[in-house]
């Protein structure tokens, strides 16, 4: 069981709870199993039976997929208020990706029977799950087009902007990507090499668009990065 009231802002701000009355939300979120995972710990692995889907209460997950040649690709980051693995659980399939905690993370997991009961009891929840699935599909299609059609520098720019919008925290110096993000992570996310990422970030840092540190990126001139991503 979970303490719904302790994190009611997360639940209320999540698209998963749209259209659901406040007095009904505890029934949904308290029905799952609460689990805490440490940075680098695996929540579920690609190919394992999809037993539960998960809502990120706080923290952040990294979803990765392993190619046949053994190369790992970052598919997406799952932020607080988002869900993952719902489609695989509904269909009784296996997890299509591996989920790893990027920072200390707390999730709520629902098994298939629990989700089906909740969908029956709370019809708006079904619409919210469908909306999340459609948005996820749209994101996958957008990233696929970027990988197929865009130069690597634009892919890196789009990746930074996407992560910034999802996970950015405003500071005096710019917008901080609020979790550890290494050159290797960006390379795995954009289908390139750490060397190319490092060279590109160094050039942008000299131009005053970003500021970097150890696994840290601050976007100091988002407007310039947007112009580059859209018009380069």
From TrEMBL:
Keywords of the record: DNA-binding, Transcription, Transcription regulation
Regions annotated as coiled coil: none
Extent of the signal sequence: none
GO cellular component: cytosol
SMART domains referenced in this protein's UniProt entry, alphabetically: cNMP (SM00100), HTH_CRP (SM00419)
Chain segments annotated as transmembrane: none
Domain HTH crp-type, first and last residues per copy: 150-223
Keyword DNA damage found: no
GO molecular function: DNA binding; DNA-binding transcription factor activity
Domain Cyclic nucleotide-binding: 16-119
Highest taxon listed in the record's lineage: Bacteria
Keyword Transport applies: no
PANTHER family in the cross-refs: CRP FAMILY TRANSCRIPTIONAL REGULATORY PROTEIN, LISTERIOLYSIN REGULATORY PROTEIN
Listed name of the protein: Cyclic nucleotide-binding domain protein
Organism: Uncultured Desulfatiglans sp
């Amino acid at each position: 069981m979970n303490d719904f009231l302790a994190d009611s802002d997360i639940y209320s701000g999540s698209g998963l709870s749209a259209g659901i009355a406040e007095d009904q939300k505890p029934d949904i979120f308290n029905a799952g199993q609460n689990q805490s995972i440490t940075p680098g710990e695996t929540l579920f692995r690609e190919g394992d039976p999809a037993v539960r889907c998960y809502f990120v209460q706080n923290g952040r997950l990294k979803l990765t997929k392993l190619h046949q040649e053994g190369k790992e690709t970052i598919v997406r980051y799952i932020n607080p208020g988002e869900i993952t693995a719902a489609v695989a659980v509904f269909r009784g399939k296996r997890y299509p990706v591996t989920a790893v905690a990027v920072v200390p993370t707390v999730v709520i997991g629902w098994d298939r029977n629990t989700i089906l009961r909740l969908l029956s009891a709370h019809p708006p929840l079904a619409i919210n799950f469908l909306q999340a699935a459609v948005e996820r599909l749209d994101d996958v299609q957008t990233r696929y087009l970027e990988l197929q059609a865009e130069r690597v520098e634009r892919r890196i720019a789009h990746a930074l902007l996407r992560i910034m919008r999802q996970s950015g925290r405003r500071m005096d110096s710019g917008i901080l990507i609020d979790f550890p993000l290494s050159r290797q992570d960006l390379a795995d996310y954009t289908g390139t090499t750490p060397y190319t990422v490092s060279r590109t970030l160094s050039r942008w840092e000299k131009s005053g668009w970003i500021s970097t540190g150890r696994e840290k990126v601050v976007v100091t001139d988002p407007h310039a990065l947007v112009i580059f991503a859209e018009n380069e």
